[in-house]
Amino acid sequence: MRKKVVIANWKMNYDFHDTTFFIRNFLKIVFERKINHNKEIILAPSFPFLHISNQILQGTTLNIAAQNIHHKDKGSYTGEVSASMLKSIGIQKVILGHSERREFFFEKKNILLEKMKIALKYNFNIIFCVGESLYERSNNQQFKTVECQLKETVFQCPSNNIKYFYIAYEPIWAIGTGKTATFEQAQTMHEFIRSLFLEKYGESVSNKISILYGGSINDLNAKDLFSQKDIDGGLVGNSSLQIEKFLKIVQS
Ligand code: PEP
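# phosphoenolpyruvate complex -> structure
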């Protein structure tokens, strides 16, 4: 059985109050309504709130992920946060390759490779994002793009490292646009991604890797998406900012 995973990516939206309010109330509702969510729930707050978030979640089954790490171990990189710093406050997961980092912070293959290496050095779980642009989809290049993104990054790792990864397929045209991929489009891509893992690493790896969909998931479309055979959960942006909406997605 593959892990079912739902991740809330809060991006640069929540301050201290919002972050702690969400987490405390989310836990309270799950407890009061006896919600038995047999899946992995991961919350990704902003850097300053990782420590407090992790402390609140001690003793629960929920986990925290960072939204980024710097690609160097330490040194004169003013304003940056390293993997070892995050490790020192108990953070064990990180999102890498998000299209917003690729686009606004010019994170290309080489930087992503370095980030992956550092993350693996500190035994982080990596939520690695891939996905095509609207132009690429319109020109039927989505499979080529995603294959290339995987080959130049994740597939550089030996097979014993793959257990640290979750893959998030996030078509760029669906992120924050309200335009979700149809479940057929998503399933087709997820099946393709799994077939690439099969080809590269064999059956036991490809059967185990969790492949999440991201891109305008909401409480209404989550069920259809998550019922597809190769979709193992979701990476959720906007809809993770409201407790009730996010809960419905978790329960889907
Ligand atoms: C994301 O940024 O990872 C994302 C999927 O955002 P949204 O759900 O808002 O499209």
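# post-check
The two ends are 17 Å apart (CA to CA).
The chain has a mean pLDDT of 96.
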